[in-house]
Amino acid sequence: MTILDDIVAHKKQTVEQLYKQSSIAYFKEDIEKNDFKYYCFESAIKKQGLSLIAEVKKASPSKGVIRADFQPLSLAKQFYDNGASALSVLTDVKYFQGANAYLSDIKKQVPLATLRKDFIIDEIQVYESKAIGADAILLILSILTPEQAQHLLTVAKSLGLAALIEVHSEDDIQLLMQLSGCQLIGVNNRNLNTFEVNLNNAPRFKQRINEAFPDALFIAESGYSKIDELEDLKRQEINGVLIGEGLALNEACIRYFKHES
Fold this sequence. Notes:
The longest helix is centred in the N-terminal third of the chain and has 19 residues, at about 5-20. An eight-stranded parallel beta barrel has the order 1-4-5-6-7-8-9-10, surrounded by six helices. Helix 2 (about 25-35) runs parallel beside helix 6. By secondary structure, the chain is an alpha/beta fold. Helices cover about 45% and strands about 15% of the residues. It has one domain (about 5-260): Aldolase class I (TIM Barrel, Alpha-Beta Barrel).
């Protein structure tokens, strides 16, 4: 089994526990009574030039701990102060040392649209995402059937959540072409089975995606840590870039977006 297989198997167990401990009805009530200020994720990205989705992440299966002194709220504020257009917050506990509370705490104090970065495989997780304050969710096509992805996308839209549809291979592109209503599409340069990174993935898939979904916003994900790489994305007219480890490796990337803004 690959790491991705392990993650999905564990996530199925997590979903089972979620249904045992809670319910969709519970999350609907929570959504009604919470006081989060929600933002339009698409509007945050849809601006002239390259937008930064800065990732609040402590660890990953491939790199281990990325930020030993991990202070999610402080980090999110730093990203905001330096020109990030939106945030991505890891909530997976076992493999990324994330937490739902990180997203909720950030949402209460940092005025940015926020993506819940997790492995969403069931609709109860979509309701949970809205309840904890997310403005958008990630849907990874390689772990979903087209039917599952379309259903989760529909549920997200019914809740006012944006959905970032993520592809990372030719097989994913074929699945993507079977979907409708995709407004945010991301290409992950990281192979989710081997965790190797190929920065050619995003530009390689961009034209085909734009032809099929001309109105969708295009996001390049993973592997970026240098200013010249960001300049390349701007020249390719890519709408946004999601950076996690690269902001830890090269803080000049953060200042780059402050300058751009």
